[in-house]
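Consider the tokenized backbone below.
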């Protein structure tokens, strides 16, 4: 089969003919129809992910058709249209057993790192990770659901506990996760402020009907937040940027506010004053990906038209290298998808 292989970290994506991977007894072999391109792919190919080993085939945001299944699999069958959760989990620890498998205590790794990924014509995925896609959802749309919609869904519902009428700031609102986060927040009845850099990204947020737009290249958004909320601050910040916006995000929080950290591609340090945390009873929460149950809920919401997957372009596998270069320069708006 055709695949793009990273032979050595820091090196190029090399087109190669490689053997079709064989599914294990609990796996399905998937004919890849769409694979979204993610910032995480850059982290992996740059060699910045500790347990990744080269050579490697990237690609973990997947939609496709089940080609064949292992001997133990009866939850999907050949011909099923599917998407997948990203994490390889144990299924037995206290977290897996209580529907919190994204914090599995015996975490086995990720699709596209610890399994062969979907920058290829075929990939294998544990059947337990698969969620069926109805015909009404295209493969390109299906490929962005798990990460780009599932991640903010988990963050806003389970972690932030966002309520109707609350105010929420989404930092990085024009990125692949952000454009779906603002849709979800609006669907949940919240007032939404979108923060990002540059007109192209912000205009996408504007088209999605957010209440306030802030271009972070013009400075700190906390003053705008106070004006917007009559001095009170916001109940929730969804932090998709990290170190660069963290200070302004904290300054924007109302008393009792919750900040959920989903991404931090701009640094590894966060500073907060314990006194301010205590005085305001702020909650700073981490949020990790999406559970399988939640992914099924998101698929249903997308099928019902409540959330629109935003795919800003589909490309043949050969275009992956140039897409990665654009992603590195922050030139990708929304999510782009490869169709191997
Ligand atoms: Zn587990």
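A designed sequence for it:
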């Amino acid at each position: 089969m055709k695949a793009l292989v990273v032979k050595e970290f820091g090196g190029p994506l090399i087109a190669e003919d490689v053997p079709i991977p064989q599914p294990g007894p609990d796996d399905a072999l998937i004919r890849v129809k769409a694979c979204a391109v993610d910032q995480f792919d850059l982290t992996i190919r740059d060699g910045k992910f500790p347990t990744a080993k080269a050579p490697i085939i990237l690609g973990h945001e997947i939609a496709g058709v089940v080609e064949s299944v292992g001997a133990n699999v009866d939850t999907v069958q050949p011909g099923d249209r599917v998407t997948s959760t990203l994490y390889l989990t144990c299924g037995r620890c206290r977290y897996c057993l209580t529907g919190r498998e994204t914090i599995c205590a015996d975490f086995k790794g990720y699709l596209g790192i610890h399994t062969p990924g979907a920058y290829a014509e075929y990939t294998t995925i544990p059947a337990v990770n698969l969620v069926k896609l109805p015909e009404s959802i295209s493969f390109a749309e299906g490929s962005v659901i798990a990460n780009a919609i599932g991640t903010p869904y988990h963050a806003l519902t389970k972690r932030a506990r966002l309520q109707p009428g609350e105010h929420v700031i989404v930092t990085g609102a024009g990125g692949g996760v952000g454009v779906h986060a603002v849709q979800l927040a609006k669907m949940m009845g919240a007032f939404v402020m979108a923060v990002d850099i540059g007109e192209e990204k912000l205009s996408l947020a504007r088209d999605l009907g957010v209440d306030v737009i802030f271009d972070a290249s013009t400075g700190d958004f906390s003053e705008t937040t106070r004006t917007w909320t009559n001095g009170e601050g916001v109940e929730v910040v969804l932090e998709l940027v990290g170190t660069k916006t963290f200070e302004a995000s904290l300054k924007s929080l109302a008393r009792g506010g919750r900040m959920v950290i989903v991404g931090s591609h701009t640094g590894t340090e966060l500073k907060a004053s314990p006194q301010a945390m205590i005085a305001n009873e702020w909650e700073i929460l981490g949020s990790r990906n999406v559970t399988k149950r939640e992914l099924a809920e998101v698929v249903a919401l997308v099928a019902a038209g409540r959330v629109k997957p935003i795919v800003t372009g589909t490309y043949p596998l050969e275009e992956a290298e140039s897409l990665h270069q654009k992603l590195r320069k922050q030139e990708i708006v929304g999510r782009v998808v490869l169709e191997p």
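The longest strand covers residues 27-36.
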